[in-house]
Sequence to fold (1007 residues):
Amino acid sequence: MSLELLLFLILALIAIASALGMLLSRHAVYAALFLVLNFATVAVFYLLLNAPFIAMAQITVYAGAIMVLFLFVIMLLGTEVLPPSPVLPWQRPLAFLLALGLLAESVYLLFFRQRLTLSLPATIDPFSGPKAIGQALFTGYLLPFEITSILLLVAMVGAILLTRKER
Amino acid sequence: MTAADFSLFLPLAVLLIWATVLLIVDLFIPKERKGWTASLSALGLALTLFLSLRQWGETASGFGEMLRVDPFATFINALLLLSGLGGVLLAYGSIRRHGVERGEYYTLLLFSVSGMMLMAQARDLILLFLGLELLSIPLYVLAAFALPRLDSEEAGLKYFLLGAFASGFFLYGTALLYGASGTTLLSGIAQAWSQAGRNLFFLVGAALILVGLGFKVALVPFHMWTPDVYQGAPTAVTGFMAAGAKIAGFAALWRIFTEALPGLAPDVTPILWALSALTMLLGNLLAIAQKNVKRMLAYSSIAHAGYILMAFVPFGVPQVRDVALAAGLFYLITYAITNFGAWAVVSALERQAGQGLELDDYAGLGSKAPALALAMTVFMLSLTGVPPTLGLIGKFYLFRSVIEAGFYGLAVLGVLTSLISAYYYLRLVVIMYMRPGEPQPVANPWLNLTWGAMAILTVLFSLIPAPLFWWASQSVLR
Amino acid sequence: MDYALLIEWTLKSLILLLVLLGGFAYLTLYERKALARIQVRIGPNRAGPWGILQPVADGIKLIFKEEFTPASADKLLFFLAPLITVVPALVIAAVVPWGPPVEIFGRRVTLQVADLNVGVLYVMAIASISVYGIVLAGWASNNKYAMLGGMRSSAQMISYELALGLAFVTAILLADSMQLSEIVAAQRNVWFVVLQPVGAAIFLIATLAEVNRAPFDMPEAEQELTAGYHTEYSGMKFALFFMAEYDKMIVVSALAASLFFGGYWGPGVERFPWLGPVYMAIKVIILLFGMIWVRATLPRIRYDRLMSLGWKVLFPLALAVAFITALGILLEQLWLVPLLSLLAAFLTSLLVTRAIWRKVYA
Fold:
């Protein structure tokens, strides 16, 4: 087992555990922190894939900005602990059964019908450094890039519109 | 970016820039004069329509194959821009009365239209996703536009949460297709498919994309949000949303499946068949139980999504594919015209925020406001598919193409569900003419213009449908 | 793997850590002395000659102090918060180049722990992470003052991160790289503070807010919030917060020096590379003195004004400055950059003054 694989397995475990922790935690602050941990782990995945730029952007944007605001709102509202939600009596068993079905299905597809022989294209190179990413964004992906800027503008206008009090 | 690229992008660029500038200009327009904003936005849409129509007949790709101009895109763009104009008319006629007039309404509408146009033109999954979001985010806000009103807030929140969820499905599908083919370009995916052959990633990716878009066009298992959102959102928004989002969603669906995954037809056809059947059946059946006109029309719009999807079921049968698609495009026109008319009438009868929307509020309209009642009758007949209206012709073309492809069951189901729908559409007509009542329709010139023009178009095009159908059949994706 | 490389990394990290720890200890003394001088006092002078053993005495005191954990605190986060605060403050320093490459035992060694090609972004990422410690400390203490301090700091740091990021952008644009070693190398002839004085000023102001120093020390404003987010902390846990704050000051000064004040460059560095760290240290000490000076001189800003300054003044100005920088580079007329930037800053301050006057005389 190579060092990289070992690292991947450990990180994968952390990522899954933190995602589960986020889902299962009844405490909003802990759930948010688990999510931060998950984002950080994903960032390390990007690092392993030789994409440091995306890794750092992931941390800055998700862990550093969005989740801080999440925490901010959770703490400000003061509804940290969720009340135990009223569950429909048949919901849990049903969910369990469905999840089991899905698991069996995917195990069958992945391990018994070996048709997933794919050669993934080498996408490592263009994502390696800031220069390459900048070049890709401003040549090949110019249109999506510009549209994204419009999208962000619209989202901002919308958010302000919905929260501003009429004077 | 080359000059050729830019000339392809020109209509969209003009609309986007127009909307952004209007956002600033609107700040200097006083609150009582928001008509200026409305007319400026209409002007922008008209200008874009002109530029877009000038591209008619052209077939070219730009931005590294990401953006496409072809007759299909031009057709859809024209339809979307006209819907946008309809949305502005409807809004100008009603939102002030309901005390929700703000200049941003019109800019958001413009942004939404540009997102829709992007969906019709994009040949790249990333761009398609951006178009989907650019379409949706303004609509989320518009749905909640009547803000302090609870049902509007509920509509906005519900639409936002479920819509974000659906976007997630679309993104996962995109990721899988990208993983399978190494590109987000539709042409590249088709190429990878022909090399790699049937494989799980393509199947799951396509299914997830179908779910994401199925949500936007309100196909049945993904329709839950529709009645609540259509009811809670301001009527003008609902009218625009019902037409525009559907047109754009179907356009994207058509383009993705015919251009990127034509080989998937044997797998997807049964799914599409079932979706279409379920949607027609459930939409029409549930509409019967509705007492509220907005909810009834919401279910009716779900049912119509089923009919439109019908045109897409035979996409794997090469001989019929083009005819069916033309029928679908024709049906989109029919649906858009009738839809705007019907929502304009609803808006004319809506008194204060959410009042006057029950079926009983329409009683006596036949004697009080004969013209309005007549128009509404025309729309209801057209939605049912009864003779002197456009709806009949649209359904005729649809059913014919489905039968040609050999899907007899679907055609029979379509006829049967149309019969079911006659019950609730005609019930409204009966209430308007047979029951006494004191309805108080609002006489707003812009609303009158909307429903009047739409009623005339509905009848006119039913008499001479040939040019429209010719146009639609020229605009088929090839 | 190259074992020599491993040893080199370990040694460099170790030295950096020691420098930061020692720097923290003596920075406290430096600050107290400097403050005392400014306020015409003498300052600590009992422990050792001129008080140089004062930090040791402080350390011993803090270690032996009793540690309280409030009964209703969230135990786990209360314990973790000081660690989460200290670690980012230390790891940011990894990308700062302390000198030009030198030869040791025939090996070419860069005086930098990690030379990332996304160095600046790394700094942004870690800086944005460092809010968590403070917010969590405030929340876990289950104390209203602490909580308010934590909330204030998160709002403040996020707001100033925008201006800070754009100030970074000006340096990135001028150096045409995100790699800190290249940014410093690009300043061999002209320091970026000359080319982009406004960007440097924004950077200095925004970093003051980022490290929660006066006049932006809202999170721990004594008069309003007792001691802010660390109200409930004592002993070593408190010392960790203290250490994080002072280490952040050092790191931020080192970054400012690298990004705008020529880093390790100075007369004679090309001939004697070992002069590099010396110049760097001098620059850092001068910048640190600036921070202390500001603390001694300026009163604390009111909270809403702090936010207004961040969002309505610094952020638009930083946007304009980034745009001007890009414009100057695009037109290949670098002399335009400082000129137009200073003009923008002048106009901004004019507008701010007018707004204030209108308020005063209204």
The first helix of chain C runs from residue 3 to 38.
